[in-house]
Amino acid sequence: MKKAVLKLSALVLPLAVSSAVMASSVEQTKGSFVDKFRQLDEALPTPNVYRSAAGEPAENYWQQQVNYDIDVKLDEKKRRLTASQTIEYKNNSPHTLKYLWLQLDQNIFKSDSIAEMTSTFNGKTLQGDPQPKSTKLSLGQLRRQQFMADNELGYQIANVKDEDGKELKVTVVDTLMRIDLNEPLKPGKDVEFSMDFAFNIVEEDAVGARSGYEHFEEDGNDIFLLAQWFPRLAAYTDYEAWTNKAFLGSGEFTLEFGDYDVEITVPADHIVSATGQLDNPSSVLTSTQRKRLEQAEDAKRPVFIVTEEEALENEKEGTNKTKTWHFKAENVRDFAWASSRKFMWDAKGYHQGGKDQPLVMAMSFYPKEGGDLWKKYSTESVVHTMEVYSRFSFDYPYPVAQSVNGPVGGMEYPMITFNGPRTDLQEDGTRTYSQAEKRFLIGVVIHEIGHIYFPMIVNSDERQWTWMDEGLNSFLDGVAGREWDHTIPWGVEPRDIVEYMKSENQVPVMTQSDSVLRLGPNAYTKPAAALNILREVILGRELFDFAFKEYAQRWKYKRPTPADFFRTMEEASGVDLDWFWRGWFYTTDHVDISLDKVYQLRLDTKNPDIDFNRLRDIEADKPMPLFVKRNKEEGKKLWVEENPDVTDFYDENDRFTVTNKERNAYNKFLKGLEPWERKTFERAIKEDKNYYVLEFSNLGGLVMPILLELTYEDGTKEEQYIPAEIWRRNHKHVQKLIVTEKGKNLVSVTVDPRWETADVDVENNNYPRRIIPSRIEVYKREKSKAKVSRDIMQDIKTELKKDDENDAQEQQ
């Protein structure tokens, strides 16, 4: 029996195939098909008893624990730290360890460190000239060179001994130190050892570091930010064993959790902020300060523990006496602190989920240079961050969350962050700040406090995968930031990554941290924008938020890898996302979906009396040829018009005239249909719907959902979402049939109308193509200036000005 075939009157173009072959252990040898939806099994590590295929810690997951007892002294005048520490290392792994590796991050400043010896010169010279022209060296670079030459930097380590007082052999390898144990450390056992260490603190503004001191010439005081300050155990993991890669600067840290007991001796008039809870407030704080802390617990706005007036008095004094601040911290992966007599200190209690819930003290420490900017926004930003991040992950688990102002623009450690923006001193003695500085402070506090969640608690390996903490945190700080004020440009929208995505100077996100070419867009913006798209476009908020929270809670106080994140997001959301991870994280493809053509089709009725009339109308609608148009304008008559007596059948009937032969064929066609076929066919003819075929090209290589906005003749609009899987059989070209009701005629189609997918060329997203709006500026052409030579004969007569005269001229 002959089946009904519905003819769509339009040109059907053959699908083009790609010539690219995806690198894979599965080899495509026939044709040019590229499977953008191939599973990531070949790229991800095989699940095992430590990490499951679901992306969660498996039954035998383990990690080490390291506890520190440190006594440290700050020599303010020499800007030097001296300390002794006792370390307890618990071997929870199934392996016997004959040695331990420690990180010596301060050694990065030594002149023979790998980081220093491999630093490159970025100045430009004129290549190819017999005598190259001069290049440039900034005063900042000269300052750094001079500081490094004038100071002995890096650790001095002594008295490395086991708990019995026996010496331990040590071997220093750049920013790492191996300690050979006197007895192998078996699984389930622990070892204790001690050491003394000291180093000269770097001037942060001179060297450009993550910590150091800042000197204030006008009052003679310093702010000390101390991080990466003690020899710390390198991580020993199930996926890499010892993570003993040298510290080169970009790749940050991967560390073990443990408990800290730290005594910090500083000048008696200093105020100290640190990881952990202050254990001896009665020894270092006045009764007034302790009372203010109690008041701050339930205050609506931050309460000053040390007021600005008190901080200003401290600046003037100076003392030879010392105080020891004692801090304890449980289950943290690092410890940092700050100290200065310049600090004012405010605090506000945050009760998570209500008054009966655990109290967190949000606190800020800053000098007078912080001004109203810090008084208004620092501590409030800390609280806002915890409110948002806890919703996406888990309740903030520590007793304090702190923001400290100093020379570091932004850096994070457990319970404490360093943040840089300040006010500007005006001639009348007042302090103001720009809108940019306000936005910078709010943004950096949210970002750095957010890092206490990722990676200080969800303990990813920053040395290997910067994006796992910076990218995830940038995504969440974008959520928190836009909930603070969405008019501030937070830099996490898909449109913010377009220029980078189409650039040539980039590497895949899954690149080791120190090899990334452009760290900001690669490790921060691109993964943040990708997660934003995953949440808002692909999964939707409900599925994404559930899966992301599941990831955070699974890996709280544990060490996830990228595979654990990818697998958890898939397993918890119930959506196959391998294509998404592959495109966004493993390649440098970009999004560029072009809407090339839109065909308007109409279903043939098979009835010759209807279809032939339609064909006649189509022919009549064609533009009149220019030859015919001009002949008519000139009044020229056709031969057949001048000789009407010479006619035949074809002058009365055109090629669209219907004959009974066609009518008989139509009737035979109808009789040959099964009842259900005839019913279906006649209904389709009666409804007379519009059929549109949209033809798309994937020019960027990155497969993505196709977001459509359809505009109709009656002024109404409709949105359609086409999943990314439409590209699964051809990632270069696809066609999509869209059917609308009779009278619902399309007038235009736009792909990604709200710029939600990071499409790099929105101008090929419109059909019909739109006129591109832009701007033009009028300018006056300047005459070219010839190079001015020195007129020494005249210039030598110039009178030498005094310093005060130069100052007066500059002020004018």
UniProtKB/TrEMBL annotation:
Gene Ontology annotations for the cellular component aspect, listed alphabetically: cytoplasm; extracellular space; membrane
UniProt xrefs under Pfam families: Peptidase_M1
Biological process, per Gene Ontology: peptide catabolic process
Tagged with keyword Signal: yes
InterPro entries from the UniProt entry: Peptidase_M1_aminopeptidases, Peptidase_M1_dom, Peptidase_M4/M1_CTD_sf
Domain Peptidase M1 membrane alanine aminopeptidase intervals: 377-584
SUPFAM superfamilies linked to this entry: Metalloproteases ('zincins'), catalytic domain
GO MF annotation, one: metalloaminopeptidase activity
Signal peptide: 1-23
Keywords: Aminopeptidase, Hydrolase, Protease, Signal
Name of the protein described by the UniProt record: Aminopeptidase
Source organism per UniProt: Pseudoalteromonas lipolytica
